Amino acid sequence: MRVGCLGPQGTFTEEAARRYFVEEDVEWSLHPSILDTLEALAAKQVDRVVVPIENSIEGSVTMTLDSLALNEELFVEAEIIMPIRQNLLTVVGTNREDIREVWSHPQALAQCRHYIHNMGAAVKNFDSTAAAAEKLAESGRTDVAAIGTLLAAENNGLEVLQAGIQDVHDNFTRFIVVRRIGQTVRSTERTILQLQFESDQPGALASVLNVFAGLQLNLSHIQSRPTRKKLGTYQFFLEVEAGWQDERMQKAISIVQTYGHQVRVLGTMNRHYVM
Length: 275
Description:
- By secondary structure, the chain is of the alpha/beta class.
- The chain has helices at 12-20, 34-42, 62-70, 106-111, 113-119, 129-139, 150-156, 204-214, 247-258, and strands at 2-6, 27-31, 48-55, 59-60, 74-83, 87-90, 101-104, 122-125, 144-148, 159-163, 172-180, 190-196, 219-226, 234-240, 262-273.
- It is 29% helix and 35% strand.
- The strands form two sheets. Strands 1, 2, 3, 4, 5, 11, 12, 13, 14 and 15 form a ten-stranded mixed beta sheet that branches. Strands 8-7-9-6-10 form a five-stranded mixed beta sheet.
- The radius of gyration is 20 Å and the shape is globular.
- Pfam families: ACT, PDT.
């Protein structure tokens, strides 16, 4: 199996992917950004990809949601929950009081926002935590730190100046395993839906939520995103605690569609915890 994930070596996404596919014979493919990773799947360069979708501190990864919405060839088949421990990585010999800038992926920087603020450091965004660590090692700068994994420090000859710097101790990220659509859907426990309203009517969202409530379907997550069609128009991503093949789920989708709304199943999955 060919599996793609966010690179270079040493990202949290790679770590989650390797723990999930530990019993598989995998040919790994690392990509420079989340968008590149999903595009590789759509282009049939890989069979599966693993990308982050939500963090317990910072919330949804909007690039992942938007990519799922825009590409009808993508389908989520599983989710991975992994604890995240952010680390301050530096060139050997760096003093904390000399650090003026911190480099990392925007999600990692956001998870350590208060820590960075207390340092009085500026931030610089990179496509991945590992890319930031790699660039820091190349630069040799002792006035800069990166935030990333222990593996990224090891791979790039950096030292861990401080471990566990995330603002909340219990920090978890949800990753999703994505494939191309068209394969058999297995029995699952959770479903992701994309919802778009046909027209902007008062109470439209409430009427949809009532459908799920009436069928005893719990919505564990609701996220709004712009439709990109017109300012002030939004689409919604719903996560429902029922498999796509559940009769209640099928009925809910059918009812919402009779209201004239657009509903698309983005994936149906089981949850896997890796430590």
